[in-house]
Amino acid sequence: MAVTTRLETITPAKAQRWLDSRASNRPVSECYAKTIAAAINAGEWEVNGETFKFNVDDELIDGQHRCLGVVIAGQSIQSFVTRGLNNCTFDTIDIGRKRTMGAIFAKHGEANYNRLAGAVAWLWRYSNGYVASGHQQSPRICEGMDLLDKHPGLRESVQAVNPKGLLMSPSMAACIHYLFALKDRESADLFFDRLASGESICKSNSTSGILLLRNILIQNRTANARLQNHCIWALAIKAWNAMRDRKVVKVLRYSAEHELFPQIM
């Protein structure tokens, strides 16, 4: 059987038939399929040369998540379809390195592209309530690029937060700095400079929250049970709010079970 490739319209009904008759494949990730469906519904689907692949028995061997995405979206798409591949072909599919948002930013000439991509992802999570809930979903690349267009100041925050001496993820710190800077850029710079260096902070004035946060993060680096990211976010916001309110803090803690996620003042 000759190998052929042609452009086809994949309707939800056709996608479901392909799923029902697919060859043995890797487990399906419904979360990933929903991401594809969201991209289809947002008009982000493009014919980019990637193909749905079928073996010599006309069984789907590559494209099950895209098929499920079409079914969930309830919309037809166009894509190239390759048929007649050897059954052993499956073992060679999708073994290359996945293109990341950082790689896309690098292609567009962005400086510090990986940290910027991480900061964009954190801003997307914060804006969609995923930080407060502790979930780790990530934006689609189109969503990330659109978010950066709307928040160009993220680039400045990535530059402003020096990764040396930081006690948290640099991309997370850049995002938090950006959100703080929306309230007060000078204070945001001061907050992170003092958090990283430990200089000019004490337990008897408004920098007490920064001191407590710094001590917690230092201990966290060697702890057996590390703080979850949403806890670090909450503690950073509490320390920031105390500084902004010129409040002396004697204890810095956060319990997701007993209190609401703090708002940035």
Backbone shape:
elongated
The percentage of residues in β strands lies in: 5-15%
Low-confidence stretches: none
Report the end-to-end length measured between terminal Cα atoms. Answer: 67 Å
Nearest-angstrom radius of gyration?
Answer: 24 Å
Helix content: 40-55%
Tally of DSSP β-strands: 4
What is the residue-averaged pLDDT?
91
Order of helices and strands: EHHEEHEHHHHHHHHH
Instruction: Please give the oligomerization state of what you see.
Output: single chain
Computed structural class: alpha+beta
What is the number of domains?
2
Number of helices: 12
The largest sheet is: 4 strands, mixed
Strand order of the largest sheet: 1-4-2-3
Please provide a written account of the structure.
The chain has 265 residues and is of the alpha+beta class. The protein has two domains: 4-92, no CATH class; 101-244, no CATH class. The chain has twelve helices and four strands. The protein has helices at residues 12-20, 30-41, 64-73, 101-107, 113-127, 130-133, 141-150, 153-160, 170-183, 185-197, 208-222, 229-244; strands spanning 4-10, 51-55, 60-62, 77-85. Strands 1-4-2-3 form a four-stranded mixed β-sheet, with helices on one face. Strand 2 (51-55) and strand 3 (60-62) form a beta hairpin. Helix 5 (113-127) crosses helix 9. The chain starts with a strand and ends in a 21-residue tail after the last helix. The model has no long low-confidence stretch (mean pLDDT 91).
